[in-house]
Each structure stands twice: as structure tokens, then as C-alpha cells.
Amino acid sequence: MDTHVPIFTLSDVMNDLCARFVINNPVNEYNDSIRFLFLLELAHWYYMDNWTKKLNYLPMITDFKFFVETFVREVKWKTFDLKNVDIEVDKWKTYKSRISVVGALLLNESLTHVIRVRAPSSLHFSFPRGKMNLLEDPRFSCVRETKEETGITISIEQCKQEYSFVIESHKGVANHSTTYYVIPDIPMNSEFKPMCKEEIAEVKWELIDKIDAKETEKTRLKEIIEKIKKSR
After folding, report:
1. Nearest to 45 by CA among 198, 150, 217, 181
2. Which residues have CB under 8 Å from 36's CB, separation 6+?
3. What pLDDT was estimated at residue 173?
4. Which Pfam families does the record associate with it (predicted)?
5. Which domains does the chain have, with CATH numbers?
6. Predicted local distance difference test score (pLDDT) of residue 170
7. Below-70 pLDDT ranges, the chain
């Protein structure tokens, strides 16, 4: 039996990421520096969550700018000038800070508990949420973030406008909003398998009356719960 295990170089892996996340997009997607960096962000997550776990000899590239530099060099990408990498990454971060966020408030059948997640660097639990991709329908964002952060699959039909609310946030010159979709009837025996292991350390159910969240979030959530109860 052939027990030979193929050795993938860093260049092989970066070219695989290019094929998965970059080159098959429309040309205007990867020729625009900000859109290109959004594609590389997806590639970076995949690299950290999959390739480094599969091949433990690959470098742990946690810094996004260093990942961009590595990708461009290994793939020999011609349309992104590494001389301007600091400027371009800063522009991308500024743009990203203004992007709207979408969150999922996943409730059990009896509407008493909600799913909460915790990042590895935090002791605080929050609702599953994340930034929308460019031109993405917020309902698709909700479906994607739910899957990535909890492992639970929901449908776009479950993200109902009448069971949603928006929280505005103002930080310095950056203003953005968070749209929350309240999604009931998630089985309490659901298996939690977050896809982004570098971002999510723990997923659990919490009693709604005892969650540590902003008062505006808790108030709006309870209003939606009453609306759901009346519709049953």
C-alpha cells in the first residue's frame, strides 16, 4: 500500500487559496484593492482554520498584513503593489469599520433561552454576529454568520423582517448599524460546531432573563418574543 503523503509547500497552499477565494471572481472584484483584501480575509480564515490544522509545519500567520504579503509573494500576484501594503490595509480597515453588522438571536422552542458565543480572547459572551460582505443581503449574512459561529444551519426564510430590529452605533467618526434577526424554534439539543475555531471558543445556551447584554438589545428582543407568542 502506498503510504506516501504529499508535501505541500507554502506556495502550493497559497495557490490553492487563490483558486478557492480569488481568481474565480469577476476581474473587478480582485483588481479593486479593498475588494481584493476582503477576498484575502476569507482566504486567511480558511488558512488558519483548515490548512494549519491539516499541515502542522505551515507557519501560523495570525497577522493579516503579513498574510497579504505572503499571499502576494507566493502567488506572484501582479495587481497589488506591496510597496503600498500598509496604506491599503489601513484603508481597508477604515472601510470595514463602517460596514453594517448582522446578528442572529437564536431562541429555543419555548422562547426562554438564547444562544451565545465567546471569542478565545474574551470572557464575555455575545450574540453570533459579523460584518456583511460587499453587496450581501443581510439575511444571507445572518445565515452565514450563524453557520460559521455556531455550526447551526438556518434558512433565509427564517430571517423574517418582522422579527428583526436595528441597533445604531457611533464610534468616533465611524457610524454603523447592527441588524438582529430573532429566530425561534432552534432545538436545544442542537450540536454546536463553530467553523471559525480561531474566532469562537465556546457556544452555549443562556437564560434570556439573565443574559449580559445591552439594555436596548434585551428590550427589543423581549418585544419580538411577545410578537412571536401572539402569532402562535
Report:
1. 198
2. 22, 29, 30, 79, 80
3. 44
4. DCP2 (PF05026), NUDIX (PF00293)
5. 8-94 (1.10.10.1050), 98-229 (3.90.79.10)
6. 59
7. 1-6, 134, 170-175
